[in-house]
Amino acid sequence: MSRADSVALTRHDGRAHTRPSLLPGPTHEGGGLTKPHAVCEVELLSRGPVEFGDRDYAIGKVRALCELGHEPVLSAMVKLRLRDGTTDSLPAIAEATLDLNGVAVRAHASADTMPEAIDQLDQRLSRRLRRHRKRLEDRRHESEPEPAPTHPGYADLPADDRTVVRHKSLAMRPMSVEEAADEMDLLDHGFYLYLDADHDIDRVVYRNSDSGLRVVPRVDGEALPGRTRPPIHPAPLVLNHLPLNEAEVLLDEGDEPFVFFAEPDTSRGQVLYRRFDGHYGLITPAV
Q1: Residue 255 located in a structural domain
Q2: Any idea which of 10-19, 119-128, 138-147 has the lowest mean pLDDT?
Q3: Where does a domain end: 106, 141, 176?
Q4: 30-44 pLDDT, tens per residue?
Q5: Among the listed ranges 10-14, 47-51, 96-100, 255-259, which one has the minimum average pLDDT value?
Q6: What is the pLDDT of residues 143-176, one digit of tens each?
Q7: In this structure, are 122 and 233 located in the same domain?
């Protein structure tokens, strides 16, 4: 283990925490962007039979990424979870949250092995930190405040002329609601259809009109995440069991940008959504 790393300590409950390093981290010295502050300590929590080498590997990756934000990293947390003996095809889960001077930057990944999950986490978190840094640099070079992201309005097409012009069939792998929200953000989409690993059902995570995160359908008693990202709340929407043509009517009559439904002869969830050209798009699970 390097001198700059933290040491993971296992508690009696099977989780792990870190003993913080007292040494400052490295500085970024390229292109005149010398970083004046040290890298913060990294806290690590683990569940399941996560090896000590994987814990050290994750801590090292996150410490290195703390340099990319070019802002003080007030806190950094890594969570590693290994579902031992599960039939799930992706049992290793890695997630990290960095507090960049009051702004939470987070990423989540899952894979067959913990090192693979950590590598994917490293890539996703790196992209988000670089994106955050670019936004900060753009703001410094512009006198006007950064406008909120907007999309063009929907084309005004008569309902009788609308049709499904795009049908995408997805091979959906199981994931958590947090990972689905991460994938939605990475793709810059307003919603994301996924197979929930914890409840074995098709669900949709989406952003509503106030940019809040919602998930449908609601699962009674579910503890949705709300501390390490913008809170995810259960949505008032339901999974509608109806044919495609009735889903089109429901979409036309409602205010939502999509309808989450299942054909009467199947329990698999599908998403019918509005396209900006006025037509419909359809997303279905691959059989």
Answers
A1: yes
A2: 10-19
A3: 141
A4: 333 334 445 578 899
A5: 10-14
A6: 444 444 444 456 677 888 899 988 999 888 888 8
A7: no
DSSP string, 11-49: -TTS-EEEE---S------STT----SPPPP-EEEEESS
| Torsion (CA) 18, 22, 24, 25 in degrees, nearest 10 | -20
**Which one-letter DSSP state was computed for residue 111?**
E
Whether 218 contacts 234, CB under 8 Å = yes
Instruction: Select from 261, 254, 252, 260 the least CA-distant residue to 280.
Output: 252
Answer whether 69's CB lies under 8 Å from 104's CB.
no
Q: Which of 86, 115, 141 is the last residue of a domain?
A: 141
**Range of the structural domain that residue 111 is part of:** 7-141
The CATH code of the domain that includes 246 is 3.30.505.50
Treating both helix axes as pointing N-terminal to C-terminal, what angle do 177-187 and 114-141 enclose, rounded to 10 degrees? 40
Q: How many domains does the chain have?
A: 2
- Residue 12 CA to residue 239 CA, distance in Å, equals 42
